[in-house]
Design brief:
The complex is a heterodimer of chains A (about 260) and B (about 170).
Chain A (H helix, E strand, L loop, with lengths): L8 H12 L15 H32 L21 H4 L44 E11 L2 E10 L5 E4 L3 E5 L5 E4 L9 E4 L4 E9 L11 E7 L2 E6 L19 E4 L5
Chain B lengths: L2 H4 L8 H24 L2 H18 L10 H13 L16 H4 L2 H14 L4 H12 L4 H8 L3 H17 L1
Helix pairs in contact in B: 2-3, 2-4, 2-7, 3-4, 7-8, 7-9, 8-9
The chains are: A alpha+beta (about 260), B mainly alpha (about 170).
């Protein structure tokens, strides 16, 4: 950063952000899928074989991404973006634009920047210390943010105990109202045996995203609980005693959804 | 002027070419937006790629007469929020990126910025970057972030305060 004391610190940080991201790395291969229709007509049997192989890899990769959570379509809803009548196929078929079997990221998962899980030294399956006792932890919701059709809570937890303990990297989150009624409950699979060492006096934080809560008139305050393991629940203090933050009801016929980000420092 | 919002791709071009032009022109904007949202270099690369894949999938249904960058940014935000478990590999600290690790100087600079902005929420970081770095108006940024101009302005103010006092 420029060593200029008169420049506000925030501007210096932003200038540095801009500089660092001035030429962000682009993928080795443009992120688009193989143009099966336009390429197949001009490549013959060999091309068709390659396309089939690419398709198999693409399907395999799509399957893997769905298991890691990409599942649904994150594209903007119709209300977010205007959609025009389709461009006719003849308008878009352009061999000169798609001259070859340009391998898509789908077919080359190793080229993409690590959709695979990155091992972290803190994700220790068998910690040498005891699992954290919720009685020693103090969690609270520090903020709620709005997002498209959902709400995201930032939650911190402090280890008020006198010793380090093993904190599960994720837990089963629940959105709970003032009557302890569960408005949304995460997957049981959220509970993990992976833990991180939680030093006494230190703080961890996470993001909890909740969507599609259709309960009628939940009672304040709304808060989040974390089921670390069966019968061991960490209850976060609500943002305020009168907090009634719940996400909008996107579809009464659909279940509420809640999920958490792994705890981080 | 918010360059990205006013950039247009000619409707007479084939969708593939329009996509390529959007990719060439907007990759930095989408990456920077994703980076602001996540504060995680590798996650931002993932999100930006995913957004362009979605654009590719939708290329024949989009109105290319309209600015495409807002669509990309909204898609990126949806991917980052509605599907944010994709970022679970971030775990306890921002994950390294092969592309970034190849340049130790850039990596060190980024880690400084990352640390400085870590206390900001995703909304605060993104609001600040969209308006102060990308040149978006409050209304434009608010639309992309699915909030109001007033809330956006407040988020920018909070972000600046946090950065000044960090």
């Amino acid at each position: 950063m420029e060593p200029n004391d008169r420049t506000p610190k925030s501007d210096r940080i932003l200038d540095e952000f801009k500089a660092v991201t001035a030429n962000p790395p682009r993928p080795k291969v443009a992120p688009r899928r193989s143009p099966l229709r336009s390429a197949g007509s001009s490549l013959g049997l060999a091309g068709a074989g390659l396309l089939a192989a690419a398709l198999v890899l693409a399907v395999a990769w799509m399957g893997r991404t769905s298991t890691t959570g990409v599942g649904g379509d994150g594209s903007p809803s119709p209300s977010d973006i205007a959609v025009a009548p389709s461009v006719s196929p003849s308008d878009v078929a352009s061999p000169s634009v798609e001259p070859s079997l340009s391998p898509s990221p789908s077919a080359t998962p190793t080229d993409t920047p690590a959709p695979t899980a990155t091992p972290t030294p803190t994700a220790t399956p068998v910690p040498p210390i005891a699992l954290c006792d919720p009685a020693d932890l103090r969690a609270r919701i520090v903020s709620w943010e709005g997002a498209a059709g959902s709400r995201i809570a930032t939650v911190t937890v402090k280890n008020d105990g006198s010793t380090a303990c093993a904190m599960p990297t994720t837990a089963r989150p629940e959105l709970v109202d003032g009557d302890d009624a569960i408005l949304a409950k995460g997957d049981a699979g959220s509970m993990t045996s992976k833990t991180t060492t939680f030093e006494p006096g230190s703080t961890l934080r996470t993001l909890v995203e909740v969507s599609n809560v259709c309960a009628q008139s939940p009672k304040a305050p709304i808060t989040v609980w974390f089921e670390l393991e069966p019968d061991r629940t960490l209850k976060a203090a609500p943002k305020s005693a009168s907090d009634e933050t719940v996400p909008p009801c996107n579809g009464p016929g659909m279940p509420a959804a809640i999920q958490m980000h792994p705890w981080s420092r | 002027m918010y360059r990205g919002v006013t950039t247009r791709v000619a409707a007479i071009e084939p969708a593939e070419l329009a996509w390529q032009r959007a990719y060439d022109e907007h990759w930095p904007d989408v990456f920077r937006f994703a980076l602001a949202w996540t504060n995680d270099w590798a996650a931002a690369e993932d999100l930006a790629q995913e957004a362009f894949l979605r654009l590719w999938d939708q290329r024949n249904r989009l109105d290319w007469d309209r600015p495409v960058l807002p669509w990309l940014l909204v898609t990126t935000r949806h991917l980052a929020t509605d599907r944010f478990r994709r970022l679970q590999r971030r775990l306890l600290a921002p994950t390294p990126s092969p592309s970034l690790d190849a340049d130790p100087t850039a990596r060190a600079r980024w880690l400084d910025v990352c640390a400085a902005m870590d206390d900001l929420s995703s909304l605060e970081r993104t609001a600040l970057v969209l308006t102060a770095v990308q040149g978006a108006t409050y209304d434009e940024a608010a639309e992309v972030l699915g909030t109001t101009a007033g809330a956006l302005r407040a988020a920018v103010s909070r972000a600046r305060t946090k950065l000044e006092t960090a």
